[in-house]
């Protein structure tokens, strides 16, 4: 063979390799585009549903309209997938959403697939809501039912508060300020009710752990339902990722969307826990007052700063930010932050 024969063979293999590479890149781009479209549609549907809560005020004890939230979510999702009038496709996509949670101010609801045997003896599958479930936590002193605000329900297991009603629903600052709890403050100073940081940490961990356990249980439980629908994918909540926890301080929605096939040959599966917050729960701001020789931090609404002309222009999100300025804490702030043994006047 002459040299130009080798050159021709090289060019053939070279262009074949380039064409194959271009095809592979094109397929990967199409796969990523499909995935991105699913993500956008799911995120939009979740945001639309939680915006319904915010816009209508449908949240809080006894007022949440769960079915309207679902209608908003699924209408938006079907529209994004282009199946707004395709009932078979809607039924098909529904099976890949094993569980939806609506996280309200004082508890959460779970929407899941369930089986029941009817009077005719046949087994039917339908989606149902649970009753509102509490965000609860227990230590050696109390059983707590947390909320997304400073309100907390407490069961006094050992009657250490020495009050008539052992079930209490109260703002946490009452345990810091109210004279009837003075004995409790003296004898149980390590209780999380008296420590801002410890309370917030316990509340967040309790809520996150409870919601994760619930999503894990109902997602795993969904395998039996999916199998009856001819789906062999194994549903299980992915471990490690807690991006959904970004909204646990607010009224929010969590949607487990798992196992949905996509790609040219439908050989890829889409898995995501979509979440969105309603931006309803407003956390208190902190103000810093300049005194004669020190700074004093106050919680928003403190009586001591109603007529003060010495407040800094800037407000703060956390006690830690105030402490960075060297500010001490007013009595309106829980004792978990920097509280010196300091006497001061109101000047």
Quick rundown:
The chain is of the alpha+beta class. It contains 7 helices and 12 strands.
Rg, rounded, reads 28 Å
Order of helices and strands: HHHEEEEEEEHHHEEEEHE
Number of domains: 2
Strand order of the largest sheet: 3-2-1-8-9
**Class of secondary structure makeup:** alpha+beta
Please tell me what the overall shape is.
globular
Which stretches of 5+ consecutive residues score pLDDT under 50? 335-347
Question: How much helix is in the residues?
Answer: 25-40%
Strand content: 15-25%
Number of helical elements: 7
Question: What's the count of strands?
Answer: 12
Q: Mean pLDDT score, rounded?
A: 82
Largest sheet: 5 strands, antiparallel
Q: End-to-end distance, in Å?
A: 102 Å
Walkthrough of the structure:
By secondary structure, the chain is α+β, with helices and mostly antiparallel strands. The chain folds into two domains: 1-280, no CATH class; 284-347, no CATH class. It is built from seven helices and twelve strands. It has helices at 3-56, 66-81, 87-94, 174-177, 182-187, 196-228, 319-324, and strands at residues 99-104, 107-117, 123-129, 135-138, 142-146, 151-156, 167-171, 252-262, 268-277, 286-290, 295-299, 328-329. The strands form three sheets. A five-stranded antiparallel sheet has the order 3-2-1-8-9, sandwiched between helices. A four-stranded antiparallel sheet has the order 4-5-6-7, covered by helices on one side. It has a three-stranded mixed sheet with strand order 10-11-12. Helix 7 (319-324) links the parallel strand 11 and strand 12 (328-329). Helix 1 packs antiparallel against helix 2 (66-81). The longest helix is centred in the first third of the chain and has 54 residues, at 3-56.
